[in-house]
Amino acid sequence: KEIVVSGIRPTGYLHLGNYFGAIRNYIRMQEDFNCYFFVADWHSLTTHPNPKDLPGNVMRVLAENIASGLDPEKVTLYAQSDVPEIAELYLLMNMLAYVGELEKVPTFKDKVRLQPQNVNAGLLTYPVLMSVDILIQRAVKVPVGKDQGQHLEMARNFAQRFNHRYDTDLFPEPEAFNYGDSLVRIPSLDGSGKMSKSENEMATLYLADDDDKIRNKIKKAKTDSAAVTPGTPMPESVQNLVDLMKLVSAPDVVQFYEAAWDNQTIRFGDMKKQLGEDMVNFIAPIREKAKDLQQDTDYLRKIMKAGAEKARANAAQTLQQARKLIGLNYY
Ligand code: TYM
């Protein structure tokens, strides 16, 4: 089976973007691939989380993944920091990463803007660590949202560069993956960009939101009051809501509102009510299951431990070969 790797940072509650950009793919892929899914706890340290919050956040990401439909019997679930082999290969790979190329990465530039008081070296080398997460398992497919596309390109570059320098084919070149043709980007509800964990809470739908919160957030979602003119394309804010509908509502419901736009009979209040109910029906079962799972920390720890063992075994093989190729073999 082909190897798949993907990770999620434990920086807050998971939201609809994480679900439809990443987790939805995980669930389908677990049937056909050898999947390694992990919690990227080292990556989250670039934003200096409170040590008291970290264990709970890691457990919750795990619980929310399983509640969404991941079967721990089928996939390998682990915490990044439980696989120290990643840290060693990261050190080695840093020697092949150029400061110039890292400084040009858009996500790095964003962080410099967002946290100018904390531009740590971990932020700069973030894509190296991410590449190593993937390469150390020799993964070929990486299910991620659109915002990670550039990082995947870098992972391919590093794989190529290492293979070329040490005249090997140790690392396959991994590809960003989504069922469907292109990578997904779920918009925020206020029309200000993509949905994200750190953003305005009212513009983000979390898998942990209760029913009324979900309804309320959708009710307050932005809809341009721009004149509804036949034949004109929908304004982005309306299109965003239709796009969300396509994810959770029945196809005939989506068609109904698209037609209503075309013939100028659309009523945003009704549309939001419908979307609110469909969203509640989608999120509620995941939320309830995640809540139960989070109580069972023994179970979650057991899964994490078993996952780490498997991830380490596979990673150790790759690392051993990398060391040898580099010339770090003395005994
Ligand atoms: P993170 O934790 O920010 O997000 C986890 C996953 O959710 C996707 N995602 C979205 N997809 C569509 N629309 C959105 N609005 C949206 N917001 C988030 C992300 O694309 C991602 O797939 N660097 C990664 C974590 C990581 C990783 C890796 C991923 C570390 N090492 C190795 C894959 C392979 C990150 O910060 O994701």
UniProtKB/TrEMBL annotation:
Q: Which GO terms describe its biological process?
A: tryptophanyl-tRNA aminoacylation
Binding annotation for ATP: R9, P10, T11, G17, N18, G145, K146, D147, I186, K194, M195, S196, K197, S198
Question: Got a GO cellular component term for this one?
Answer: cytosol
The places in or outside the cell where this protein is found are: Cytoplasm
**Pfam families per record:** tRNA-synt_1b
User: Motif 'HIGH' region, which positions?
Assistant: 10-18
Q: Report quaternary structure and partners.
A: Homodimer.
Q: What is this protein called?
A: Tryptophan--tRNA ligase
Origin species: Chitinophaga polysaccharea
Provide the gene name from the record. Answer: trpS
